[in-house]
Design brief:
The chain is of the alpha+beta class. It has one domain (2-86): RelE-like (YaeB-like fold). It has 2 helices and 5 strands. A 5-stranded mixed β-sheet has the order 1-5-4-3-2. A hairpin with an 8-residue loop joins strand 2 (49-50) and strand 3. Helix 1 (6-20) runs antiparallel to helix 2 (24-39). It starts with a strand and ends in a 15-residue tail after the last strand. 25% of the residues are buried. The model has no long low-confidence stretch (mean pLDDT 90).
């Protein structure tokens, strides 16, 4: 099962809101694409690369558009931790910012 953390859900909503300022149609498409790719992680959890800033084999990322979808592979499921814009300074985030 793929579980979305509250911060990740908020990130997804912010992405939608930002794009929807110009086009609700494209905002919906982008969010649906992100969710679809995230759902595939249940079957293929190791498809993403290890997040270099963290270096934990279980914390991985997929690059989707300009965003880094950060997730953690745990024994029974995949937990989506955050969606971070690629230009954001990841090193300024605390690991606790990625916690559920």
């Amino acid at each position: 099962m793929v579980i979305w953390s509250i911060p990740a859900r908020n990130d997804l909503k912010q992405i939608y809101d930002y794009i929807a300022k110009d086009s609700k149609y494209y905002a919906t498409n982008v969010v649906e694409n992100i969710v679809s790719k995230a759902e595939n992680l249940y079957e293929f959890p190791e498809i993403g690369r290890v997040v270099p800033e963290i270096g934990d084999e279980n914390v991985r990322e997929l690059i989707i558009y300009s965003n880094r979808l950060i997730y953690e592979v745990v024994p029974v499921n995949v937990q989506i931790l955050a969606i971070i814009h690629g230009k954001r300074n990841f090193s300024s985030l605390d690991r606790n910012d990625l916690e559920r």
